[in-house]
Structure formats: structure tokens, C-alpha cells
Amino acid sequence: MTIQSGILSAFGMCPETKFRKVPLTGDQVGIVGTNPMRFFTIEPDGGFPAKPDITVPNDEIDGSASLKRTILGAKDYDGRQSYKADAENMLIPRLGVFGKVTNLTVTPLLEERSNGNGNGGTKAYGTTEPGPAPRATGTTATTSATTGDPQPGHAVKHVFTMGGNKPSFTAEEIFGLHKYGRLSSGVIVPRLDTTLGRLIMETFTATPYRQIPNRYINNAGADTDYDWRDVDGPLPAAMQDGVENTMAKITAVPNYVDVTPDACGDGPFVHARIVHGSETGFSNVFFKLNGVTDLDFKVPEGSTISRYFDAEAHHIMGSGYDPGATNANAFHVEGKFDVLFEDNSIILNTLAKCYFSVNFKVLGILIGGTTRYSWEVYIPRFRFLSSETTTPARAMMTGGNFVAEVDPALGYEIKETLINTTDISTWGGEVGDNPGGLGGFELSATPPP
């Protein structure tokens, strides 16, 4: 046996058309066009480890002072992944936590430029080439199934707001030397946290509903061990919608969707490229008071934004040791904006229960023409929960923890806009595809105001 290093590992996710069913092309996870497998670079120490619920009845009265038995009651799976945020790897976590997106093709961008996976597309400026038409299921994309269908030479705008449904995903963790790994299906993403540090970092929390390596009861009623490795092996029926012995194995050659830096720019987003947003009234300011008054806040590195919904995993009759049903409850947006102290305005307005607004955009490298990879945030109404002004022996701060609330005119508490090169108009798992679970994502035809 060879001792292995985690730095050689890989991680990817793909959307599911049906809750808990692993999408496959042959024996490989992912389907071109509808369920693309998207690998991206992650930080150390993440993953979705299994958590067996083993009861240890130390106080049973059985004629002995020693522990005689333990009991396996259930299995749960959850974990998290962290990454340096860019416009491609931010896509799936947002689709998971928001569940509602408008997918808009931007005017074709005609230049030789990376498509986010290192594959360029040569175009000439000034042509009238139309934007990409939606592909039929199973047709060939411009790159392989595992790239997430990035399209060189054009950009796509994704506008996210909170939806009433959520999609599920299949996640593949490939360990060390790529001989062994872990495959999870029915993965729900209930939480996404962003830190606006010098490098913009994100962490998403996920809850799988099926996982191998593991032991499942096969269709004949026998306990069967299922592994996940680099040679074909059967998937349990619980991960194939009741169909048994479908053969699959670890992705042979993971292809990464991370934005590839160009000669003069970074792939991941950085704090230094935060600029004013595109919402009305925010061309010269980041913050407003009560939707009207411009505020010249000076916000250093370290702000945070969290979006999460209260998800519940239920162990039900017939689901074996795994959770079998899920539901989503309240949706929350909160975080922290520390502001350099200049006067008492935040203290006064916080105690008067006034509301604030924020709009900012983070720019990445050029996709083509003058269009860049970007990520924009608009929170139309938030309130500071306290005025955390103390007197340290260094720069004083004010502001602090905040909570967002729905703007009654706009109908949302947060709107995020992501511009990258990935067209999701043909992805599976949309509401109406009968995906089960939390119902799939909503692909809206009209962007929110």
C-alpha cells in the first residue's frame, strides 16, 4: 500500500436531473450539455465525510459493568469546501443556495481569449456572429463534458435571487493518487459564505443524501459493499433511482473550470478589483442610507456575506440508514461590514433603525472585447444589528454585524450577478424536470429589477 498525499486530490460537482441519481456517460460521471462535471481548485481540509450515528449505551443494566454492545442507528453525510473565488467556480454553489437564476447571453465577444478552462477561441472583432443557441441533449459541446460547457468567444450573465426550489448535485472527491475516492449524490447546498479579504474566499456547506464507499442493501436484500475507485464497479440502486449494478468509476482525467489568469491579471477575484456597482444611484458610492442618502463609508478588507436556508434531512421509512427526504425553511442573508470610524452616523442611524443599501462589483480578467469576468452584489435593505464601536489602540471601527430583509418594491433581499462563459440553459435539474428533492432550480426568463 502507498501512503498518499492529499495535495494530489481533486474535487468536482455536476447538476442532477433527478434527486440522488448520479448522471453518467458510459462509466464516467457527467453528461455533456445537461449534467456537466465541473472540477475546480479547492483549499485543504474540505470534504464530505460520513458520520455514522453509533449509540454507545454505557449505562445498560445487563449483569456487567463492561460495555457489551454498540448500535448503528443511522448515517449522515455533510461537510464543506473552500476555494479562492472566481467567476466559474462560484456558479454551482450559487445555483445550489439560491435556486433561482436568469441565464442571459451577453453580446458576442470577439477576441482570442481563454474560456475559463485554458482553451481559447479565435474570433475577429466586428463580426455579426450570433450568440450560442441552446444545444439539444447529447450533442457535442465545444469542450469536453467535464468542463461545464464553457463557450469561448461569448459571455453569459447569471442573475441570482432567492427561489422557492433548490437543485441537487453529484459530488466526486478523488483522493491522492486517483485510485480511490468518494462519490456523493443528492447533494444539497444550504449555505454559502463569502469573505472579502485580500483574496476573495468562499466556503459552501453541503449535505449529501447517498454516498459510497458504503454498505447498502441490494435489490435481493443482501448487505453489499460498494467502493469508489479507478476500476469499474457497480453503483448501489439507491444512487441510480432503483436500477442496480450500473457500472462506473473515478473520472479518468478531471478538467478544471477555474478561470485561467492571463499575462496581466488574476484568475481568482481580489479585493483590489472591487468597483462601484451598476444599480441606479450607485455609480459613485457603495452604500446608501434609507435608499436615498449617499454614504462615503471606507470599508477595509475582511467583510463577510452569508446566505443560507434552514434545511432539514429526514430519515424516513424505506430509506435505510441514509436520510430519505429533505425540506427547506427560512432563507437568511447576513454578514459583517466593519467601517473605519469617522463620525457617529452609523451609531445614530443604527439606533434609529434606519436601513442601509450596498452595491459593489468585483472585476476579473477580460473575456473578450471590454467585457470581463465579474461578480456583483446588491443588498437593497440591510440593518446593522449593533454599533460595535470600541476604542482600540489602532484604527477605530464602526458598523459590524448586519441582517438583510426583503425590499418590498424589488421583492428580494439580495441579488447577485455573475458573468462568466458557461451557458446553463440546457442543464438538467430544472423545475419541471421532475427532479424530486427540493424541486430543482428555477430558470427565469426575466431578470429581477
Describe the structure.
With 449 residues, this protein is mainly beta. The strands form 6 sheets. The protein has a 19-stranded mixed sheet that branches. A two-stranded antiparallel ribbon has the order 2-3. Strand 16 and strand 17 form a beta hairpin. The longest helix is centred in the first third of the chain and has 8 residues.
Percentage of residues in DSSP E strands: 35-45%
- Shape descriptor: globular
Q: Count of helices?
A: 2
Mean pLDDT over the residues: 89
* Helix percentage range: under 10%
Radius of gyration: 24 Å
Distance between the termini: 58 Å
Domain count:
1
Major sheet summary line: 19 strands, mixed
How many strand segments?
A: 29
Spans of at least 5 consecutive residues whose pLDDT stays below 50 are 110-148
Q: Helices and strands: which structural class? A: mainly beta
Question: Which keywords apply here?
Answer:
mainly beta, 449 residues, single chain, 19-stranded mixed sheet, two-stranded antiparallel ribbon, 29 strands
Give a brief description.
The protein is built from two helices and 29 strands.
Topology record:
Elements: E1 10-15, E2 24-25, E3 28-29, E4 38-39, E5 50-55, E6 71-77, E7 79-84, H1 91-98, E8 99-105, E9 113-114, E10 120-121, E11 156-162, E12 169-175, E13 180-196, E14 200-207, E15 210-212, E16 214-217, E17 223-226, E18 233-235, E19 246-248, E20 274-276, E21 287-289, E22 293-295, E23 303-314, E24 325-340, H2 345-351, E25 356-368, E26 371-384, E27 397-404, E28 415-420, E29 442-444
